[in-house]
UniProtKB/TrEMBL annotation, chain A:
It comes from the Bacteria. The chain crosses the membrane at residues 25-44, 64-83, 122-141, 161-178. This is Formate dehydrogenase subunit gamma. It is found in: Cell membrane. Keywords: Cell membrane, Membrane, Transmembrane, Transmembrane helix. It is a multi-pass membrane protein. Its main location: membrane.
Amino acid sequence: MSAPETGVPTEAGRTIDRFSRSSRWVHWLTATLMTSCILTAAVLYNGSLAVIVGHRYLVEQIHVYSGIALPVPMIAGALSRAYRDDTRRLNRFTHRDWAWLRSRTRRDGTIEVGKFNAGQKLNAALSAGSIGTLLISGLAMYLTNLAPLSWRSGATFVHDWFALAVGLLVVGHVWMATRDPWAMTGMRTGRVPLSWARREHAAWAREVAGDPPIETADHRSRT
Amino acid sequence: MADGQGSPYDGRPVGRRVALGLLGLGALGIVSGRHAQSALSSFLEPIQLRDPTGLTSLLPLGDTFRFYSVTGGVPIRDATTYRLEISGLVDRPTVLTLADLQAMPQTDLVRDFQCVTGWRVPRVHWSGVRLSTVLDRAGVQPSGRTLRLSSFDGTYTDSLTLDQARLPDVLVALKMLGGDVTHDHGGPVRLYVAPMYGYKSVKWLSGIEVTDAVVPGYWEHRGYDVDGFVGRSNGRGIDERT
């Protein structure tokens, strides 16, 4: 849906709503559980850390229950309309997303970005798929009577490699966030400056603030 | 849309496809079992051998031991402080030192170490005294049926029936991987129950008590089978007997 073109001048320093309370809760609960999973995984997986920390049963229990709880905030978020709206936006890739991913100058604003850029969309999809895979392979390893040993060996293999990949994904996500303080403010407080939104998420800023479409950007994005 | 910008809900559901694709890849990896792991290991092994940074050792390549300990720290015992106590329903309660064990007949085995959670270390060289030899030294009384094994980590216990304990490939291991059993591997003396999952191979072995009934051990209290035979327990079929 396109926003009505009201033409109302916007004051400098104006802020707009970016993330609802529900979306932020889902994000931070998932982040907490993911951190717990990663820290305990380091102890379970790394021999030197395992020897230092020991207490394998306790560490394993924390890891297992953090892991089982990990998808719960995302599933519970489906009760919120605002969160469902965010997931729908993350799910959809347009030709502009592909162009943005291919572009070397993707940050210059030439390719207009909606509420989420294609990198954020990819991060969400990879995270969701990986969390699901880690849950299934983790359960296969934990419930030893569930699957034959061959599958448990396969589950160990899958769990190890997906965990490594998710670890890199999380590191990349946090690194990108630290490079953009306003993006972090958005996830912390729910609001961002309109000027930031116009720079990083122009199409979304226009949708929210009701700015007129920018002809050049629109034109170029269609070529 | 009229302005050509398109709705934010336009486009293809790529996110869902990526997520489902990953789930499919994961399921394939689980079902293909060890084969995918072996293929990847053999592909990466030459790289790992030539890696001067050592970073590839952080990759989950499998076929290596993972160190499990259920307590915060385990005291270090060496040749002078190590003792193995055999007690319970025996004719001669016995305390053996490391030297005593080294003086007994040694048996060598090359067998896999299989963890119940799935990882396996193939063709590990083990050496030590048959558990049956140790039991004969103390003389098991006719009323003895089972063993309660304990660890000097102060927490870990496990059980074996006398029949299981007398299998020829159950060792009180003094050597593994071509050297003395290291502290992290459960040294100086650990159990190695070749036909069973790793949780039966008690690390830091310090006590063998002959009892008349099974007392479930540490992991067995937490859901693992008491008779932990590889191939006949914990969901494993009789294939792949190692």
